[in-house]
Design brief:
Low-confidence stretches: none
Structural class: mainly beta
CATH superfamily of one domain: Jelly Rolls
CATH architecture of one domain: Sandwich
Distance between the termini: 59 Å
Number of helices: 2
Strand content: 25-35%
Largest sheet: 5 strands, antiparallel
């Protein structure tokens, strides 16, 4: 008979050490290195995928989307330039401490806006499996800059 303490020992909180993130089981997009921390296979997550991404100085990813998943990107270090749209015609930048939300099926591209520093981010997606669909998009030359407007606190 299993006691509740024994059950919680292995079915409770899980701490995944930084050195044990997994890049081999994650779909990759050219220009970035993704590593999984939390997913179904590694932690039993049913509704979340979390991991890291590093984009080298001056590099950019290929265009892609994440299917039906919502994604959140938290910028830890560096400056992210996000392009999105059917021809990557929109652009916005984010720095350390900023959050980026990517809705389902939105074609996008991450760019490291720094020529000297690696862009380091934490990713969270709304499923226990990683999904990434690489796209062949001819991007516009001059994207339109978009600033976020808080729909709740408009002042």
């Amino acid at each position: 008979m299993t006691t509740s303490a024994e059950r919680w020992k292995h079915d409770g909180v899980k701490v995944i050490p930084a050195g044990s993130l997994d890049g081999g089981s994650v779909p990759q997009t050219p220009g970035m290195d993704r590593k999984a921390a939390i997913d179904f296979a590694r932690a039993g997550a049913q509704k979340l995928w979390a991991g890291t991404v590093h984009i080298h100085a001056g590099a950019k990813t290929g265009a892609h989307h994440h299917g039906p998943l919502e994604s959140v990107i938290f910028v830890v270090r560096g400056k992210a330039r996000m392009r999105w749209g059917e021809r990557l015609e929109f652009v916005a930048e984010a720095g350390p401490g900023d959050f980026i939300f990517v809705p389902p099926y939105v074609p996008h591209q991450e760019i490291n806006a720094s020529q000297d520093e690696t862009l380091e981010c934490v990713l969270v997606r709304s499923d226990g499996q990683a999904t990434s669909v690489n796209l062949d998009i001819e991007a516009v030359e001059a994207p339109q800059s978009v600033k976020w407007i808080d729909p709740i606190h408009r002042d």
